[in-house]
Amino acid sequence: MSESPTLELTALVVALIALVIALLQTIQQYVSSATARAKVNRAAIGTWSSKNQYIWSLREWKLRVQYARPKFTVDQAVKRIQNLQEKNDGKIKKELSGYDWVWSVPESSGGERSKVEISVYQLGDESQKPLPIASLTRRQRATIKEIELSMSNLYVPPCKATWHNLMIDLGLHPHKLPGTDLLDADTIASALDAPTMSMPMSELITFGFLLDMQITKFDLHERHIDMIGNLSGSITTRHQEGVGMLVRYSGYDQTDQPFVIDCSSEELDMSVQTTRGWLAIGDSQAQMMCWGYNSVNRVFTTVLERITNDKWEGVEVEDVMDFEDDSAPSWEGRWNQPMTPVVPFLLSFAGNMSVANAFPRRLLEDWTAPERQLASTSASKLLQNTVGFIDTPKDLFKTITDEDFHVFNSHDYKACYQYGCEQGGMRGWLATNFAEFTLRMSKCWVVSETTAQVPVLPHLHPFFRNGTLDAALGAKYNSTLYRNSNDQGEKWKMRANSLLWIQITMFDTWIAHRIESMMGNDTVGDAPVPADLDTATRCKVESGGVEISGWKKSRLSFALPYLERLAEGLNEKGASCMSTSKKRFANPELGWADMPVGTPHDWAVIDAVLTLRAIVMATRYEMMKDSSALLDLQEFDPTVQLA
After folding, report:
1. Beta strands 278-281 and 358-359, pairing class
2. pLDDT digit string, tens, across residues 162-189
3. 190 vs 365, higher pLDDT
4. How far apart are CA 377 and CA 279, in angstroms?
5. Which of 135, 290, 476, 503 is 20 to 30 Å apart from 338, CA to CA?
6. Distance (Å, rounded) from C-alpha 20 to C-alpha 42?
């Protein structure tokens, strides 16, 4: 009886030892998958690890780790950003009724990325001076602080999974993005530090452009893509043993702020579409290669049939947007050999985007340099001999910046602030009015009365005369070779992108005013630049302060006969300054006889300004990063693995 406790104790010890051995065996089996587990832990994939699932396998007697396969597209990313910004805009509109606002990202200082700052303005305040945040109510201040925090892309330490870092730099929160099917961690190649993300090459390239990168090497068949950023960041492709071609993303430095955070949701969408080679003609968008005389004519005719009044109006035209270029058999040969090339015709109508940094330059090749030079010199000569030009003040940009009038941004990603009638940061004489732009310009370009002269920047005027405006001149301007002291300050330097955007917009104010006048309409709501402050103020009041893009009957009534004359000419001669016909009128005004309204002089001078507009648009597109690779990927778009 006395030995029983000893035996029981011994049995207990043996049992405990057996249990420990069993546990060690289990741990050993568990550790055997440690390589896989290390690839899906927080150090490897950052906040994406919150989506991991851990399953105990009774058959294998070990814990298996599964991770959510990362997958997202450019459109999904932009939509996520849109949802966040729409939510924030809704909060601001609710709490700041009677105020206007803009957000900006100041220059970084210190060891973390800059935070978004919201500036508030009193509606109707012509000074355009931001209000002190302290003057707002406590609730309004709290709302602004909350939104600034939610929109600020603060520095997040990088992890081994470079696709995770890509999400962060786009301003997305990885743990809030949906994951697809679950994969076992043991399926990760042993040569990798983290699971990969499968992505079409076109999507990766578009993400690169959104992050302000440019292509340095592209090989479709080798699935090779290299991109490099202006500030920091890169995309590189290398062959890795046991894996194949593998792409890695190198993120932004912690003190660099991606420009996407400073864009509205509509602007980002427009930027993506421009990168893919889309043009906005009026209030409709399609790939440039699909637009032509016939397709534009179909849209314009349909809108004119459906429009119900003389004011700006949204008209649904999706049912007629399935079209092809002028060479398609469906057009039966109509206008397939126009007197005026398609490219300048489209650029004279196309929307002028405030946010765009890439475009397929290949789409512009059909309008050659000699053709542009002839068009530029012809248009400049005609205008000089008729209505004349008026140069902007030499210190215009300095005045705008010093007085904080918020007319433009001085970088290549975004040319202007969120203001005025626009869609996706796009403005154009065919689709919007320019009341807010004209009002702001009237405060920094002071005149006593409006003028019929064509506004032009002195930086560009000489190149219009000799027809040498091109991307190379823009590059020289950006390198300070052609930049004077009035084009830069302590914290800013004017860029060619913003320079060209302002010139196009000034042309558009003149074109819109001239068309309305020729059509016999009231021009109070379409004051041109430069305008005196009183005229510009009445123009803003007439517009009702409504920010809208759409269609207007008077603009279409001009556009349709203008389109036809560009395509067909007159008496087998080219009528437009943009025409490449060998037969041209000695007096350009003769080419505009027999138009349905106005005088030949009216049509000739408007055509001349539209010609210069097309040249500036072409130059702006050529200065952007070249996204022609996306055209090659439309038919064959291989998948790449992003580590």
Report:
1. unpaired
2. 999 898 888 787 777 777 688 888 888 8
3. 365
4. 26
5. 503
6. 30
DSSP H/E element including 446:
none
Q: Closest Cα partner for 375 from 582, 622, 611?
A: 611
Q: For residue 549, what are its two tokens?
A: 């893009």
Q: Where are the domains of the chain?
A: 31-276+631-643, 277-351+358-626
Helix (H/G/I), strand (E/B), else coil: 480 = coil
Taking only the tens place, the pLDDT of each residue in 139-164 is 888 888 877 776 655 556 678 899 99
Summarize pLDDT for 84-117 with one digit per residue, the tens.
666 666 677 777 777 777 666 565 554 455 566 7
**Is residue 443 within 8 Å of 535, Cβ to Cβ?**
no
Farthest CA pair distance, the chain: 131
Token pair 């009534």 is found at 557
Distance from C-alpha of 454 to C-alpha of 463, rounded to nearest angstrom: 15
Give the residue from 284, 549, 539, 606 showing the smallest Cα distance to 431: 549
Distance CA 585, CA 573 (A): 7
- Identify the CA nearest to 365 among candidates 586, 100, 147, 631: 631
- Encoding tokens for residue 521? 């309409």
Asked if 420 and 437 count as a contact pair (C-beta separation under 8 A), the reply is yes
With a CB cutoff of 8 Å and minimum separation 6, the contacts of 59 are: none
pTM for the model: 0.87
